[in-house]
Amino acid sequence: MKVNSADIVISAASQKQYPKAPIPEIALAGRSNVGKSSFINKMIQRKNLARTSSKPGKTQTLNFYIINDLFHFVDVPGYGYAKVSKTERAKWGKMMEEYFAEREQLRATALIIDVRHKPSEDDRVMYDYLKHFDVPVMVIATKLDKIKKGQRAKQLKLVRETLEIEDEDALIPFSSETGEGKDVAWKTMLSHLQL
Ligand code: GTP
Ligand code: MG
Asked: Which residues form a coiled coil (predicted)?
């Protein structure tokens, strides 16, 4: 899809602030610093619309972006960062539950994982959590530019088997650095969005 417009709608700390327009949405999920915001930027060809950082914990609220006036990308705070207090963790859990359990227009979630590593226990829990809401999950294996071509098949198999990805869910090798996987990711998103 050619992206003609992309803008932030709101950084929402709670449900009351979510955009009311009944526009279909794709949400992101994944551990801190894995590359969720970078995925959004690459998909829409904007350098830093979704703010990124080399330090984990950059995204702290649910950030709604509107693309071509057609759909929302929802950037979310990551999980699995050790230096987070109990209070902050509970706040994060509430934020996720409020969104994933109740958001009517959510059409699919892009679960971002790092292709270099075996998915963590947190990644497994997240995949199962998303599946229990009956929303399709696209697993994006990002940072593909960081492994050798010869390692790809083995790493992707490890991801598929560790997460026990269901047949209806796509596993898409991706790089926010090179843009590899972008076309497949768009195709999958558009089919979920029914656009
Ligand atoms: P939080 O908002 O903190 O949860 O992080 P995030 O998941 O949004 O990660 P973010 O997009 O901010 O990226 C984290 C770091 O990884 C940044 O330094 C990015 O430049 C880098 N990064 C993200 N994707 C890729 C990729 O595909 N390849 C490479 N080489 N680096 C990447
Ligand atoms: Mg982020």
From this structure: none
